[in-house]
Design a protein that fits this description.
It is a single chain. By secondary structure, the protein is mainly alpha-helical. It has helices at residues 2-16, 20-30, 38-58, 65-69, 73-96, 101-112, 116-124, 130-160, 165-175, 179-188, 191-206, 208-220, 237-250, 256-279, 283-287, 292-313. The chain has one domain.
């Protein structure tokens, strides 16, 4: 069922344009009634957890350490600082609005790293509560919509500011959430900006592993965690495979055609996982979350954009 819905979402996206992930999520939400069937529930749970982790692991096949080193130390430090502060803003806003710290990690991590896939990867190592599942779904919707808006607005704004291609690419790669939107926005400003934006974005993706490991370490030390200790390995298996794929890609062992295949497979698995997450959640549950999560996502998105713009304005990149 998840596969069929993901294929339908892909067909609609390719033939009528629009965000593939949003189509997958909304169609999945409309099939929430299927969760009352035991066998389907097992399949949905498998797609929402196991296939998600496989998809995140395969992201490493397109990343090399050479790409990361090409950024330069100053750019790398600024991007890392932007990511860390964005996650910190997420935690602050969660506390300010009286929400769980896990929600701050999910929203802040999704904006800081790589959108929907980061949100779901982080949520997968946090306590598996209904509240976290609902919040993750709302974050997936939010970051996808915000990424699409940024994909349209940022290139035109950067063009009006007459910034060079490299600086524009760094800004786009460091501020837009989802990989697909980063590539699209970068290419609107030319091949050089597109390549730079993609490299910066992949650098953010590679930082998914240390951030998730840090989250696991912190959640292990919390007394109120709902997960048994044996379900919280220090380094989740899917992140180990992520690093292995990065190493293999860096050593040139993975040929280009296999890297491209892994990228497409990863995207497909993430779409299926988002369909499953949609099926697990109802619109009524999403509405219960209120307006605070939306404000959190918008604030985090504006913060990371303003932070990067300050460094650009003062020629520090």
């Amino acid at each position: 069922m998840c596969l069929v819905i993901s294929l339908a979402a892909t067909f609609i996206s390719e033939h009528y344009s629009g965000p593939q992930l949003l189509y997958a999520l909304f169609i999945g939400l409309s099939f929430h009634f299927l969760m009352s069937h035991g066998q389907i529930k097992k399949g949905v749970d498998f797609c929402a957890r196991t296939l998600l982790r496989c998809g995140v692991a395969l992201l490493g096949a397109r990343i090399t350490f050479v790409q990361v080193s090409d950024l330069g130390w100053s750019t790398a430090i600024v991007v890392v600082a932007a990511m860390g502060l964005t996650i910190a803003i997420g935690l602050f806003l969660a506390r300010f609005y009286g929400r769980a710290s896990s929600e701050g990690l999910i929203s802040g991590g999704s904006v800081a790293i790589c959108g929907a896939s980061a949100a779901m990867a982080i949520a997968s190592v946090l306590p598996q509560t209904k509240e976290n599942e609902r919040f993750t779904l709302l974050v997936v919707v939010g970051v996808t919509v915000l990424s699409t808006i940024a994909m349209v607005i940022y290139p035109f704004a950067l063009d009006l500011m007459k910034l060079n291609a490299q600086v524009s690419g760094i800004f786009i790669g460091a501020t837009i959430h989802d990989v697909a939107q980063v590539v699209a926005a970068g290419m609107l400003l030319g091949p050089e900006a597109g390549d730079t934006a993609t490299i910066v974005k992949l650098f953010r993706v590679i930082l998914l592993m240390p951030i998730v490991v840090l989250i696991v370490i912190v959640s292990r030390n919390q007394k109120n965690t709902n997960l048994p200790e044996k379900q919280q390995p220090l380094v989740p298996t899917f992140l180990v495979f992520f690093v292995v794929f990065v190493l293999l890609s860096s050593m040139g062992i993975i040929p280009t055609y296999l890297s491209n295949f892994a990228t497409e497979t990863s995207r497909s698995l993430l779409v299926i996982a988002i369909v499953a997450a949609g099926i697990k959640t109802s619109f009524e549950d999403l509405l219960k979350l209120g307006w605070q999560p939306v404000v959190m996502l918008v604030t985090e998105t504006l913060f990371i954009a303003c932070f990067m713009y300050i460094f650009i304005a003062f020629n520090l990149l």
